Each structure stands twice: as structure tokens, then as C-alpha cells.
């Protein structure tokens, strides 16, 4: 990848939680559907659907997006400048609409590429599904229908690291450690987001964690493409 191509990439990370604070807050129909879904989990033999509900945020059918952080190169010369911002709200539709507006505005051109870690299996489809649920028209960057594989401009750092080894999963944090990049997990990690949201009611803490994930994501991406890492002063949180 050429350095100039970086200006067309929108790096992103999403944070999701269960759609309700507890299993008992779901209506009867959703409770039955979650019980059926969770029965296939490895832990189902020893845990009830209620106990497994803390995993609901992983699934777009049972979860919601509370934060979407995005990062982009606002300039490449004379020094690169990478800006990170976040859309965060208890109202999921607002978060998704703000993201859709960004993709329909500044990042609405054929060169635009989205980049996330495990984005092809999680972030991109999750956002698209939740947008459809809320009746938000899919931005072109998330619209896959009718496109040929080479017309889908999605980048995935997990896929780049796999080199075709599709049975292998490597976390973003592990890649950061391998490349000696500072971790974003110094406060919380993804497994704690649901608890921080519903028990601590701390959306700001989740937002800061999500923004740090984007800063790690871009550094890992640069390493995978054998490009120079960003200096800390060139990563601007807004």
C-alpha cells in the first residue's frame, strides 16, 4: 500500500451491549428466542439463558451499538495527522445515523475503504444490521448487495494477519503486543463493556476505551503494511 492511499481509509471500532439490562427486561418472545439461541453455547449445559445474557451484545439481533469510534488521516504531509472522534449515545439510532451521515458525506466516494479488526465478521455486518432495524438507509460503504467481491472496499487487520489461515484468530491486543504497540486495554477490555454500561452507567469510559482501540488499530495496520508508525503527538483525539 502507498502512503497516499491512507487518506481514503476510515478506521473504526464499535462497542456493543445487550439491548436490555437483563434477560427479564426482554418481552416474552425475545426471551424465548434468546433461550433457543443460547442453548447452542458451549456453557449452556451449566448456565441458564438468564446467566448467559451478558453475551447478548455480541449478536446484532439481541444487542445494540453504544459507541462507534472513527479515525482518519486529516493530513499526510509534512507530518501525518490522524484524528479520532466518537459517536456515543444511549440512543442507538442516533449513533448509527451520525455514522451513516459521515459515510454519506465526507467518506462517500469510490476510493473509500473501511478498516476494522475482525470487521468483516463483526463491526461491518453488525452496523449494517442495526441500521436496517432502525430504518436507516445503508451507506454505500456498507452496502454489499449486488457488488462483486473486488468491489467491496473493506479492510480487516485480522484477515491481513491470517495470510489465508482461516482457522486462526488473533486479537488486536495480541497483535499490538507482537508489534510492541501500547495496549488499549489498560482500563477495561471488550468483555467488560456490558457491565460498565449497565452497572456503572459509564458511557464516557467506554467511549475513551473505544477511541484508544482505533489508535491501536491504525498502528497495527501501518505495521502490517510496513509503513512507519505514528508518533503519539500525531494522534489527535477530538
Automatic annotation (TrEMBL):
Q: Is Ribosomal protein one of the keywords UniProt gives this record?
A: no
One Pfam match, given by its short name, reads: DNA_pol_B_exo2
Source superkingdom: Bacteria
The UniProt record lists the Predicted 3'-5' exonuclease PolB-like domain at 62-226
Q: What Gene Ontology molecular-function terms does this entry list?
A: exonuclease activity
CDD domains registered for this protein in UniProt: DNA_polB_like1_exo
Q: Which UniProt keywords apply?
A: Exonuclease, Hydrolase, Nuclease
Xref: InterPro entries: 3'-5'_exonuclease_PolB-like, RNaseH-like_sf, RNaseH_sf
State the name under which the record lists this protein.
3'-5' exonuclease
Q: What organism is this sequence from?
A: Roseivirga thermotolerans
Amino acid at each position: 500500500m502507498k502512503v497516499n492511499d491512507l487518506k481514503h481509509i476510515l478506521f473504526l471500532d464499535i462497542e456493543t451491549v445487550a439491548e436490555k439490562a437483563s434477560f427479564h427486561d426482554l418481552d416474552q418472545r425475545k426471551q424465548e428466542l434468546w433461550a433457543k439461541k443460547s442453548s447452542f453455547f458451549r456453557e449452556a449445559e451449566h448456565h441458564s439463558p438468564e446467566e448467559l445474557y451478558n453475551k447478548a451484545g455480541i449478536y446484532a439481533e439481541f444487542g445494540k451499538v453504544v459507541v462507534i469510534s472513527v479515525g482518519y488521516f486529516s493530513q499526510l504531509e509534512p507530518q501525518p495527522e490522524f484524528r479520532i472522534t466518537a459517536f456515543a449515545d444511549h440512543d442507538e439510532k442516533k449513533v448509527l445515523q451520525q455514522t451513516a451521515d459521515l459515510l454519506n458525506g465526507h467518506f462517500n466516494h469510490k476510493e473509500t475503504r473501511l478498516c476494522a479488526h475482525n470487521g468483516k465478521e463483526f463491526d461491518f455486518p453488525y452496523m449494517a444490521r442495526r441500521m436496517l432495524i432502525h430504518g436507516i438507509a445503508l451507506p454505500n460503504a456498507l452496502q454489499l448487495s449486488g457488488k462483486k467481491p473486488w468491489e467491496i472496499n473493506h479492510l480487516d487487520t485480522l484477515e491481513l494477519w491470517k495470510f489465508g489461515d482461516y482457522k486462526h484468530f488473533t486479537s488486536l491486543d495480541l497483535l499490538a503486543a507482537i508489534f510492541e504497540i501500547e495496549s488499549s486495554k489498560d482500563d477495561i477490555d471488550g468483555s467488560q463493556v456490558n457491565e460498565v454500561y449497565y452497572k456503572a452507567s459509564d458511557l464516557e469510559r467506554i467511549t475513551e476505551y473505544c477511541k484508544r482501540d482505533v489508535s491501536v488499530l491504525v498502528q497495527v495496520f501501518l505495521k502490517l503494511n510496513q509503513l512507519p508508525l505514528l508518533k503519539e503527538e500525531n494522534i489527535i483525539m477530538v
